[in-house]
Amino acid sequence: MDEIRIIDVRADILSDNRDQADVIRRDLAARKVFMLNMMASPGAGKTSVIVQTLRRLRGRLRMAVIEGDVETTVDSEKIQAEGFPAVQIRTGGACHLDAPMVSAALEGLDLDGLDLVFIENIGNLICPAEFDTGADLRVMILSVPEGDDKVLKYPLMFSVCDALLVNKIDYLDGSDFNLQALRRRAHELNPRIRIFEVSCKNGAGLEDWCDWLLEIVKQKLS
């Protein structure tokens, strides 16, 4: 009997995606544009954090947003209402953004007039962690109402991210969320991850996050 030939389609897809992501990174580096991939569960506050960051860095960086969503243009409309360019990717059911999608979206932006591009990925803690978008920085948002055990349930997401924003800390007093346990688990899994405790409701921690991001972008583009 002939040996069974196994074709790993998933491996091929991820390899092709990484190749396209590398092309994106080289092109953006040549244009001196920094790109950030923001990932989180639905409702964690991705759009709110991006809007608050845009407001605080307005005038210091030229920025735009690539919005990923299964349907609707609601989030893009919020970004445009703030006076920033936005391109909407409607996946029609796909649970993540990949490098080809991001490459197509970048064609809709005036990259020569930008310093920083945010990607707001699809609300999902699984698939977005696997697909390289060509971003220079990967950031995860975890909201307090989600619980501090997400690092145990979705380790890959915490492993690949450069920074973690613990959002909605204004809910801490009424919850059993354990910040110390979360920090310990996250750093055991990913010692280099930077953790920021923020609230888009009262502004807590957002200046520290924005100052850090601004410094990272300036270092990369200098």
Give an overview in words.
The protein has one domain: P-loop containing nucleotide triphosphate hydrolases (Rossmann fold), CATH 3.40.50.300. The chain has a seven-stranded parallel β-sheet, with helices on both faces. The chain contains nine helices and seven strands. The longest helix has 23 residues. With 222 residues, it is an alpha/beta fold. The mean pLDDT is 93.
Q: H/E element string? A: HEHEHEHEHEHHEHEH
CATH topology label:
Rossmann fold
Structural class: alpha/beta
Task: State mean pLDDT (0 to 100 scale).
Answer: 93
The CATH homologous superfamily is termed: P-loop containing nucleotide triphosphate hydrolases
* Strand ordering within the main sheet: 3-2-4-1-5-6-7
How far apart are the first and last residues' alpha carbons, in Å? 61 Å
Q: Could you give the count of β-strands? A: 7
Brief summary of the model shown:
With 222 residues, the protein is of the alpha/beta class.
SSE blueprint:
Elements: H1 9-31, E1 34-40, H2 46-57, E2 63-69, H3 74-81, E3 86-90, H4 99-106, E4 116-120, H5 127-130, E5 137-143, H6 150-153, H7 155-160, E6 163-167, H8 179-189, E7 194-197, H9 206-221
Helix pairs in contact: 2-9
Notable traits:
about 220 residues, alpha/beta, Rossmann fold, 7-stranded parallel sheet, 7 strands, about 40% helix, globular
